[in-house]
Amino acid sequence: MLPSIKYKAFVVEESEGKYLGGVVEKDTKDLPENEVLIRVHYSSVNYKDALSATGNKGVTKHYPHTPGIDAAGEVVSSNVEQYKAGDEVIVTGYDLGMNTPGGWGQYVSVPTSWVVKLPEGLSMKEAMILGTAGFTAGISISRLAEYVKPDDGAVLVSGATGGVGSVALSILSKLGYETVAISRKETEYEYLKALGANQILPLDDFLALDNKPVLSAQYAGGIDTIGGKALENMIKTTKLYGAVTTCGSVSGTNLSLSVFPFILRGIALLGVSAQNYPGNLREPLWQKLAGDWKPVNLLEIYKEVALTDLNEVVQSILAGKLKGRTVVSLA
From CA 316, how far away is CA 46, in angstroms rounded? Predict the structure, then answer.
């Protein structure tokens, strides 16, 4: 049985078809009965959190609900030997913040299989600057690197000012890849260059490429975070035996293209899912993100907010106005 501890959480409630969020007092005894109880120090803001906070039933089915698909904190109590009180840990993905109370509360109760020990080289705040977005970028680069090496040519990154795109640019640059950022935000070009972008393509120009089955082969591969026409053109402009990863769909969920890029150039399209990434692969990837892959400018790509700021932040991310990462402080 979970102990009774009063805590603060950002809770979204449904009222007459509207979804309103605010900070309320909760009790840990009302959390799900799981093996590990964690006091959350930091969480983050992801697009999926914004959907949960605004009533998207494809993400969260039942309200009232506490979003937050990321959490970093310390173990308060544990029913397993693997984790002990005081251990610093990370939880990302699975059902956290979707249909299980998430990291926008000062405590979470989760199954053992969801928990990863905080690796040396990362603070809890840094882990949440990365969060699901950084973890997704890490998976994307891991998969892309199976097909594309730094000497093969430039790599495209769409949605480059967003959480996944920002971290991906930084890691790719650190690993020696030439990068081409795709972005509509002209005011953020200097930001993208600081992340390591060697070239910047305006999104509208990239979307306006000829609607042919295949286009001039210019890039070794790509990391797509938005889907739709951008993903189509990324595939069409990829060189022989290149690869493109995809992890997002804010610009569209359908692909309107022929099989020619795949059968004429042998291109691989690699789907990326951070939510259900295998448990045995999570710790090694976090170790990379804390070590050789740790972005050199990690502390320059985030802003920090409190629970009371989240309504405003949610509207900003849905309007496409956020850049980099947003960390939620709950300590």
Answer: 11
Q: pLDDT-based confidence at 102, cuts 50/70/90?
A: very high
In the CATH scheme, what is the code of domain 132-271?
3.40.50.720
In 3D, which of 68, 222, 242, 237 has the Cα closest to residue 159?
Answer: 222
What pTM was estimated for this model as a whole? 0.95
Cα(256)–Cα(56) distance, rounded to whole angstroms? 26
Burial (CB count within 10 angstroms: exposed 0-12, middle 13-18, buried 19+), residue 262: middle
CATH topology of domain 6-118+301-329: Quinone Oxidoreductase; Chain A, domain 1 (3.90.180)
Residue closest to 225 by CA, chosen among 144, 157, 142, 314:
157
Q: pLDDT digits over 171-230, tens only?
A: 999 999 999 999 999 999 999 999 999 999 999 999 999 999 999 999 999 999 999 999
pLDDT of res. 320: 86
Q: Please state at what angle helix 124-144 crosses helix 279-290, rounded to 10 degrees.
A: 110
The β-bridge relationship of strands 107-110 and 199-202 is unpaired
Give pLDDT, residue 17. 86
Peptide bond into 278 cis (omega under 30): no
Q: Name the segment(s) of the chain with CATH classification 3.90.180.10.
A: 6-118+301-329
DSSP 250: T
The predicted-structure confidence for 58-92, as pLDDT tens digits, reads as follows: 999 999 999 999 999 999 999 999 999 999 999 99
Residues in CB range of 222: below 8 A, 6 or more apart: 155, 156, 157, 158, 234, 235, 238, 244, 245
Sheet of strand 199-202, all strands in order from the earlier edge strand to the far edge: 199-202, 179-183, 155-157, 219-224, 238-246, 268-271
